[in-house]
Specification:
- This protein is α/β, with parallel strands linked by helices.
- It has a single domain, classed as Nucleotidyltransferase, domain 5, CATH 3.30.420.10.
- The protein contains seven helices and five strands; from the N terminus they run ββαβααββαααα.
- A five-stranded mixed beta sheet has the order 3-2-1-4-5.
- Strand 1 and strand 2 form a beta hairpin.
- The longest helix is centred in the last third of the chain and has 24 residues.
Length: about 200
C-alpha cells in the first residue's frame, strides 16, 4: 500500500489545507488547515474520498487530539454565489489558516489554485490529499465538519435528503429540487444549470 509522505517542505510548522463541498448544490464550502506533529502516522490516513464514513470520523478524533494545531473555515452558499466557488474555497482556507493557534511557516494546498496568505510561502499540489499527511488530515476534517453541518441542515429541510447526499447533486436531490423547489441553503449560481437539467 502506498504510504503518504509526512510533509512537503523542511519547515517545522507546515500547514496542510483542503476543502470539501465544492461540487455541491447546497450548503457551505468548508476548508481545514492542519499542522501535524513530527513523526505523526496513522495507517488509515488518506484522501477523505478514499475512506469510509466510519473511519473518517475515527480519524477526525485522532487528528483533532494529536495535531499541533487545526482549524476549520466555512463560507456559506450566499457568499459562494457572490464571489464564486473557487474564491469561496480559497477564502475558507484563509479563514481556517487565520484561526490556527500556531502560526504556520509554510502552507501546502490540495489542488492547483490558491491566493497568498500574507507572506507565508505556499505550494499547491494536485491530488495532494493522497500524497501528504497534513493535506490528507485537512481533507478529513473539512469533510467530517461539513457532513455534520449538513446533518443539522437536514433537520430543517428533510425533503432534500442531506443526511445522505450532503448537498451533492444525486438523482434523489435533483428530484427533490424539481418537486419542492430550492431552499435558502441552495446555491443560486448552480440554479440555471440545474433548471435546464431538470426542465423546471
Amino acid at each position: 500500500m502506498y504510504q503518504l509522505l509526512y510533509r512537503y517542505s523542511d519547515h517545522k510548522y507546515e500547514a496542510g489545507c483542503d476543502e470539501a463541498g465544492r461540487g455541491c448544490l447546497a450548503g457551505p464550502v468548508v476548508a481545514s488547515a492542519v499542522i501535524l506533529p513530527e513523526g505523526f502516522f496513522h495507517p488509515l490516513l488518506n484522501d477523505s474520498k478514499q475512506i469510509n464514513e466510519k473511519n473518517r470520523f475515527l480519524l477526525k478524533e485522532i487528528i483533532e487530539k494529536e495535531a499541533l494545531a487545526w482549524a476549520v473555515g466555512f463560507v456559506d452558499n450566499n457568499e459562494i454565489d457572490s464571489i464564486n466557488i473557487l474564491n469561496a474555497s480559497i477564502k475558507a482556507m484563509h479563514i481556517a489558516l487565520e484561526k490556527l493557534t500556531l502560526k504556520p511557516n509554510y502552507i501546502v494546498v490540495d489542488g492547483n489554485r490558491f491566493k497568498p496568505f500574507g507572506k507565508t510561502p505556499h505550494t499547491t499540489i494536485v491530488k495532494g490529499d493522497g500524497k501528504y499527511m497534513n493535506i490528507a488530515a485537512a481533507s478529513i476534517l473539512a469533510k467530517t465538519h461539513r457532513d455534520l453541518y449538513m446533518q443539522q441542515l437536514h433537520s430543517e429541510f428533510p425533503v432534500y435528503g442531506w443526511n445522505r447526499n450532503k448537498g451533492y447533486p444525486t438523482p434523489a436531490h435533483r428530484t427533490a429540487i424539481a418537486q419542492y423547489g430550492i431552499s435558502i441553503y441552495h446555491r443560486l449560481s448552480f440554479r440555471m444549470n440545474e433548471q435546464t437539467r431538470l426542465k423546471l
